[in-house]
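Milestone 3.1: sequence recovery, worked example.
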């Protein structure tokens, strides 16, 4: 088996890619007035009796410059959720925890992006084939093997696997694994159907070909070389709180969650899963965005070659969503890439304008609800206007 550690070396004698620095909007080539509007609008998302999110962190920039890094609201605002009144039980003001720019958030499905990059690293190494069948690596996953599911289909959500399985209801790890191994596509392979099972199966493939667990692959291949010291799988004690997770709205009875993964299946799998489980900060995610915009390099580290970054971000996108106006606003349309997370997280990187936007929020605090994409799209549109205004 191949060693799954990526060295983070500079590739082909290339010069180091510039590291991020905080500077003025003007130095970033951005309109300061549009960014002032952006900050005001994002701060307003945390206000009122029923805000869009209890707390938010916003990081935006262009090129190697962070032009905006702001936090607003609360990392922890509520002690519980009162289902009788359909409101959150607020903590006394002195007991609340304010959101800060260094507050980690549960990334939820943004974890999928790291799983995708880890897969691309193995493609670059030659230990994984993009059109190889999952059954070639995991013959015991008999349903996937019988239906000829490929690595590409896992990365593009075209395997036909249904959105999720109730792994959280299984009595033990053996039962969870048996359920996954027996799961056959619910629709025709080749058709797009977004599913947490795709990156979860990809996790098992990566762990088989490397002999290392996903958390080690992410740490050694991505976060450590890039200096993303605040990014890790949980537990993460200082993270923003998520929900008072109880049935019937939740799938488990776990109480108010903070620093442990919100997703029930990821929790059942021990907190490390291909589809959810990572915690991170706005600054760390800005580094991740900048690395991809720079062709896979950051400072002296190279986590991926430019050709493989291009493959990652070529339509229809391998793990990344491309040009989605629903949350990318006016940044969509020319090859912008990114993702959202159920807990309220999102990021967008736009190669056409060399811009990035990270918006972290705990919209599920104190109880899960479908979070409107409108604030995300509005923030991205402000950033797009800031570029056009230069």
């Amino acid at each position: 088996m191949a060693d799954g550690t990526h060295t983070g070396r500079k590739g082909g004698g290339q010069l180091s890619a510039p590291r991020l620095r905080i500077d003025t909007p003007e130095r970033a080539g951005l309109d300061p007035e549009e960014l002032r509007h952006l900050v005001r609008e994002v701060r307003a998302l945390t206000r009122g009796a029923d805000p869009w999110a209890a707390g938010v962190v916003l990081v935006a920039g262009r090129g190697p410059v962070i032009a905006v890094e702001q936090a607003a609201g609360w990392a922890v605002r509520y002690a519980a959720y009162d289902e009788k009144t359909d409101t959150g039980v607020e903590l006394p003001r002195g007991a609340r925890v304010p959101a800060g720019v260094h507050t980690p958030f549960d990334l939820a499905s943004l974890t999928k992006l790291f799983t995708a990059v880890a897969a691309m690293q193995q493609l670059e190494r030659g230990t994984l084939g993009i059109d190889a069948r999952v059954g070639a690596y995991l013959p015991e996953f008999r349903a996937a093997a019988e239906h000829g599911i490929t690595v590409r289909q896992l990365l593009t959500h075209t395997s036909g696997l249904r959105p999720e399985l109730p792994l959280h209801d299984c009595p033990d790890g053996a039962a969870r694994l048996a359920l996954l191994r027996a799961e056959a596509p619910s629709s025709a392979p080749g058709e797009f159907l977004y599913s947490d099972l795709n990156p979860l199966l990809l996790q098992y493939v990566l762990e088989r070909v490397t002999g290392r667990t996903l958390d080690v692959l992410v740490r050694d291949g991505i976060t450590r070389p890039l200096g993303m010291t605040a990014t890790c799988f949980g537990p993460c004690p200082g993270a923003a709180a998520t929900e008072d997770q109880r049935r019937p709205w939740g799938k488990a009875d776990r109480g108010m969650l903070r620093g442990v993964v919100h997703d029930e299946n990821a929790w059942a799998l021990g907190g490390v899963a291909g589809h959810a489980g990572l915690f991170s900060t706005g600054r760390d995610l800005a580094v991740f965005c900048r690395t991809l915009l720079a062709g896979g390099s950051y400072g002296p580290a190279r986590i991926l070659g430019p050709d493989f970054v291009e493959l990652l971000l070529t339509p229809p996108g391998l793990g990344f969503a491309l040009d989605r106006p629903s949350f990318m606003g006016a940044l969509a349309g020319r090859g912008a890439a990114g993702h959202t997370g159920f807990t309220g997280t999102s990021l967008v990187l736009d190669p056409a304008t060399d811009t990035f936007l990270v918006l972290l929020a705990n919209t599920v605090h104190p109880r899960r609800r479908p979070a409107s994409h409108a604030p995300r799209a509005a923030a991205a549109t402000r950033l797009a206007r800031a570029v056009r205004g230069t």
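The chain is about 35% helix and 20% strand. The first helix runs from residue 25 to 28.
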